[in-house]
């Protein structure tokens, strides 16, 4: 398995191009099932999760052609579609469950494996099931698979989710576009990836209003047509690279960065003593004046502080002046980066969903283990400023959500290289 070696190398400077959003692309791709006409996505990120979704869609009968090195995905589902999402693929990536809504809308039935748990939590699907049942689906669990059917097709409904689940919002939204009548989803997720999906669906002929707010209204239509759509900028990759100069010093411009995608995150950076300036091409980030100040963080659904930036923010706060308290309210087990950061000399006390970080002057390089996607990149960020060399193992986690991370960081002055596994 590959490893990444990173050595503290002083302040960074230069530009980092931010790619299209993994979590937008993973819901935009299944939307191709909603029309027999081609759907083409541009600005797609080149990631292993996207390749996994490609494999899943191809197993359902969708034609997926990757162009321009993976930046363009040309998809067409005009052939026979088989409605079975196999466990072997789904267990690798929870987002595979985003084919459930589109398959139900397209075919009136679907068999989708439950994804099973992952490192950060049990990740059940009850909110998805309640939402699709409200639209007239009958869903039962047999041998680890969700068997979903509809008698007479999906019907519009008013439904309030118990929690603003991102994936359940996306499944409901896609299914409701072809349901008979009007649907209203309450307590809907408001993430930018939801808005991006709704924007693409409108290009395909869907009638959707209120995306980006807690109440989304969908007027079902008889059919959708093809479209071409650019994947929105990845706000999590953006926040991750914004933390590089915050941790190491220097000044870095994140190309394609938009402040509206990371407003809550920027508020915390400002409080910690990090300046963020909008430029014609993105966002420029630098330390304002010397040592980072401790700040408290609570993760919440958008527009709150994103859970997907919690691990990376902890890496910054390990060397802040003072004590920071991070509360993880979205997932039940998302502090696995803490013991690894402690191997580098960080002082962190974890109690349930709360981590208390007491800043130290400097971390020290050490061999560490990636446990999940965002934890792996937090270890890289910590290694950028640590004294000596950090060796991060199991970097396959990293490749799920970050394209060419060592190239992008080397280009701004980091001392980092990937060593191919034995
Ligand atoms: C999406 O996951 C993202 N993934 C996650 O990013 C992100 O962390 C998460 O939203 C929250 O923002 C994709 O978009 C592909 P949820 P999703 O449904 O949709 C519980 C990354 O690092 N829940 O909003 O699965 C769930 O267990 C990944 O890129 C239920 O209990 O998130 C979790 O505790 C990680 N029942 C919470 O809600 C359900 O039916 C949030 O889940 C669904 C969810």
Summarize the SSE layout with pairings.
Layout: E1 3-7, E2 12-17, H1 22-28, E3 39-42, H2 48-60, E4 63-67, E5 72-76, E6 84-85, H3 87-90, H4 100-107, E7 109-113, H5 126-134, E8 137-142, E9 145-150, E10 158-160, H6 166-176, E11 182-186, H7 192-203, E12 207-209, E13 215-219, E14 227-230, H8 235-248, E15 250-255, H9 263-272, E16 274-279, E17 282-287, E18 297-298, H10 310-317, E19 323-327, H11 337-343, E20 347-351, E21 354-358, E22 367-369, H12 373-385, E23 389-393, H13 396-399, H14 405-410, E24 415-419
Parallel strand pairs: 2-15, 3-14, 6-7, 10-11, 18-19, 22-23
Antiparallel strand pairs: 1-23, 1-24, 3-5, 4-5, 7-9, 8-9, 11-13, 12-13, 15-17, 16-17, 19-21, 20-21
Helix pairs in contact: 1-7, 4-6, 5-6, 6-7, 8-10, 8-12, 10-12
Residues 22-23, 26, 94-95, 121, 123-128, 163, 165-168, 307-308, 330-331, 373-374, 401 line the site of ligand EPZ.
